[in-house]
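User: Last request for today: this protein with NAI, please.
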Amino acid sequence: MHMRIAVAEGDGVGKEVIPPCVEILTLLLNDPEFIHVDIGYAKWAREGTPITDADIDLIAQADCMLLGAVTSVQGSSVLVRLRKTLDLFVNLRPFRSYSLTPYELNLTIIRENLEGLYSGIEELSDDIAVTQRVVTRANVERLASFASTLRNVKTVTIVHKANVLKSDIFFRDVCVRVLQEHDVPYNEMYVDTAAYNLIRHPETFDHILTSNLFGDILSDEAAALIGGLGLCPSANIGPKFAIFEPVHGSAPHIAGRGTANPIGAILSTTMLLEWAGECEKASLVDVSVKQTISKGITTRDLGGTSSTNEVAREIIRNIR
Ligand code: NAI
Ligand code: MG
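Assistant: Here's the final one, the structure of the complex with NAI:
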């Protein structure tokens, strides 16, 4: 299949970790077309907006998108806008151990990506601030159905705070019904208990299904357990489109030094390949990343001394 992939390096380390991903996709896909899009903080500084309507139109013409990271501009989240405009209701974040820490993890977080406390429905006055936590039936139904149809699901843990929040009684009940309909084994856990158990017994988790903010927080915790944010990929998935990006941000203090870990971004291309049905090619990249880490060719965040480029070159050499 001839794929059209929108590519936005964005800001900071995005500019360092995305070029090797483009190289890997060029190597593995049949004549892919890359549509380069300039978005982010630097664009905002120049043009007063981090992303224009024309950028969104250009992105929507592609089959999917690869994104580095965008430095936040207060009051205007590029990621939230892209997720909403492109209806990317799932945020999928796998966390696998690479023997870099004592923890054994093989966990995927399935995070709701459009609503909850990120609804954007807010009011701020001098003495009170209110953010609405929105949970809609149709959206949770499609989220739980998505979780049910993933390959290799052993148990889905629904993470919520239904002992306090009515919106989470609703979230949990819709999830339970859909998982039961699909005959998927599940259990449930309060979010505070989940945060604790993730540290105490990380190996007991398989898939976590949760709302937007809880998923955001538990993801960073899981990232710390496997060795750091630099390792972690993610996919924002909707009915027709998907954006693949490392979990980390633009990491301004290490940007431009050639020390950023490219693995989170490179594993995002693995997720892109899987999404496109190219599972064998995806596993080539995965295996190559594992080999590179086990040889100790790693960047500083993982205790190594290699540069971004050295790690990327080794991964690409293994793929070839
Ligand atoms: P960050 O993820 O950029 O950095 C957090 C920590 O992880 C820092 O110590 C950084 O040096 C380290 N780190 C991140 N990526 C790394 C890599 N590839 N290799 C080695 N170390 C790495 O988060 P932070 O500092 O909170 O945010 C920086 C900017 O990025 C902010 O403007 C934030 O809003 C934005 N951001 C953007 C995201 C996106 O575009 N999806 C996601 C998260 C933050
Ligand atoms: Mg986050």
